[in-house]
Amino acid sequence: MIIRRGLVSLGTHFLATRSRLLHFDTPLSCLVPLVPRRRSILRLSSSFSSSSETGAASVRLTSTRDMAESRSPPVAKKVEHVMEMFGDVRVDNYYWLRDDSRTNPDMLSYLREENHYTDFVMSGTKQFENQLFAEIRGRIKEDDISAPLRKGPYYYYEKNLQGKEYIQHCRRLITDNKAEPSVYDTMPTGPDAPPEHVILDENTKAQEHDYYRIGAFKASPDHKLVAYAEDTKGDEIYTVNVIDSEALKPVGQQLKGLTSYLEWAGNDALLYITMDEILRPDKVWLHKLGTEQSSDVCLYHEKDDMFSLELHASESHKYLFVASESKTTRFVFSLDVSKTQDGLRVLTPRVDGIDSSVSHRGNHFFIQRRSTEFYNSELIACPVDDTSKTTVLLPHRESVKIQEIQLFRDHLAVFERENGLQKITVHRLPAEGQPLEGLQGGRNVSFVDPVYSVDSTESEFSSRVLRFKYCSMKTPPSVYDYDMDSGTSVVKKIDTVLGGFDASNYVTERKWVAASDGTQIPMSIVYNKKLAKLDGSDPLLLYGYGSYEISVDPYFKASRLSLLDRGFTFVIAHVRGGGEMGRQWYENGKLLKKKNTFTDFIACAERLIELKYCSKEKLCMEGRSAGGLLMGAVVNMRPDLFKVVIAGVPFVDVLTTMLDPTIPLTTSEWEEWGDPRKEEFYFYMKSYSPVDNVTAQNYPNMLVTAGLNDPRVMYSEPGKWVAKLREMKTDNNVLLFKCELGAGHFSKSGRFEKLQEDAFTFAFMMKVLDMIPASG
């Protein structure tokens, strides 16, 4: 996985590219599969829950400020650390908080003091937080299964059990697996149906650990074995186990120190990727079952520290593709699964500025290629035996970005973006072995909501059935099977939302705002039409990210209903630096144009106030990881504009981090943020880096979170930011810092634990806004 500072567990799902990643809290059925790792997210709207067992007060406190003033916040000690570059001197009194071993007693003591202070301040609303948690949990159908996916002779699916934190991985035999897959297929479950077989119960595995997460679960081509990758610390370093899928007994020894990139190469071998000392995926290995890991063969070592490796299988399952990518360049190797002894073959060469992704069908490779000239990508094809002979299938279009493609035996599904909205176009292909020519027209899949999110998911290559996931800000996550010949869509699964949920009570809108340079910025909006007054008096939560070309599309989150049903409006600001409006949208929000991300967000906030969706006294904002950078920069620039700030695992010590190549992600992200060893980038980065721009001024009420084992954003970044804010700020507003000592970038791993985090965050916002009833 390419790690980035940033995105998304959408429910919990991770948009992981290797960077500071995005981490959303949308349900699993709505969003995309695990991707590379960035300093990002995103969990959209979440925070770390209080660990205090303190009982709640029976009456409401008159104000958050009174409570905070009744006990002094922690004060971090100062140890002067001087840094000088280009004649510029910076003093970081809290640099000592960084301890790569995570064992420094003074550091751990300070983090615990902050956690205790957070517990103390929030103890008076613990009863209300618990009520919120019960309300949020009450919307979930706890005993449920995912939409079964037909794979070979089995239906595979995931199952939740009543009261359990984790899932079971299950399958059932298909009695007639020779029949052509159809959108009308259903998995039999009655007494006469083939029995359910539980391959792996995560609840059993998780009993031994405070944190547990499966990063990959892969059945072998003959379905006799399963390989799965598990993380038991939150540091995203995985151990792979192989088991007999029927007998459930271990096969061979564990593979340790891996990323979650894992694929079968036939029925008796695995490909996997490992990382270097700065957590950069740099080596791809071939492992033969029954042999020692020490004897595995390294197929490729990427020595350029600007590049990271990733791995995926073709839809045809005949090839594995290993890609090496930076932020601007990506080249691909192929491995013929039937000829692993031949090793990797260069499929697309390394050319600076050319980004290519590859799929396979029949005797052709399909290549999605992006360049400076063709920035929204084109789609070409070439014969397997002559990759230099290419045919353009879909040309570059200035207004349409090719996001990804999905290949089938007879069809091609193209996932695109136009004017900020996603779409799916399906093309029928000539028979395998026939010449390929430019594609014309195609059939578009239609969607009903004005703003929505749609994502690809695994489908059967040899069928005419495209499976995709759909949701909107008022439509629960749904799984559809689409017949690419007839155009028929059949709902296979809609996430159940209990508690009297009625989608017709909510309104979703799309508004545009002019940025400071005149660029039109889209916003996605949702509110309860029975409660929102739209007269400026409503509370509003504004979410933003804006990095790594990651698109934060309008998504559903059941816990958010606890805000909407109390009169909140929720808004996503699709600021530059993300990918919502195409490649140029991203280019105009990175490097020496990064400040566009921040000024776009401010423009959105000001416009929402002008349109009377809220007022300054009711405006809250949230961002995680690279979105936490957005929070930090904006709160320094316009602290008067917001009442509440939620900054999750925020990437806030930008300049110091990007100057240190020993920190994970730094070298590979110089093409994202800039290389501050160059004077121009140094001073530009310093002008917005949140830690470097904390000043003696009033700040809003703030909740900041971190994870001690976080490999994307070190816990010390938010730690020193909070310490400096406590030292410098001139107000009496509440500033809380919650560091999860047993988790990483994506906080706790259990599904109910994550709901508790939402309840805690919502309770903090409503406490500050004086919205907690006396009974709470």
Automatic annotation (TrEMBL):
Signal peptide: none
Domain Peptidase S9 prolyl oligopeptidase catalytic: 555-770
Domain Peptidase S9A N-terminal: from-to ranges: 73-493
UniProt enzyme class: hydrolase
Entry annotated with the keyword Protease: yes
Gene3D superfamilies: alpha/beta hydrolase (3.40.50.1820), Prolyl oligopeptidase, N-terminal domain (2.130.10.120)
EC numbers: 3.4.21.-
One example of a Gene Ontology biological process annotation: proteolysis
One MF annotation (Gene Ontology) recorded for this entry: serine-type endopeptidase activity
Reaction catalysed by this enzyme: Hydrolysis of Pro-|-Xaa >> Ala-|-Xaa in oligopeptides
Keyword Hydrolase: yes
GO cellular component: cytosol
Job description of the protein: Serine peptidase whose precise substrate specificity remains unclear. Does not cleave peptides after a arginine or lysine residue. Regulates trans-Golgi network morphology and sorting by regulating the membrane binding of the AP-1 complex. May play a role in the regulation of synaptic vesicle exocytosis.
Family: Belongs to the peptidase S9A family.
Annotated protein name in UniProt: Prolyl endopeptidase
UniProt organism field: Arabidopsis thaliana x Arabidopsis arenosa
Organism taxonomic ancestry: Eukaryota, Viridiplantae, Streptophyta, Embryophyta, Tracheophyta
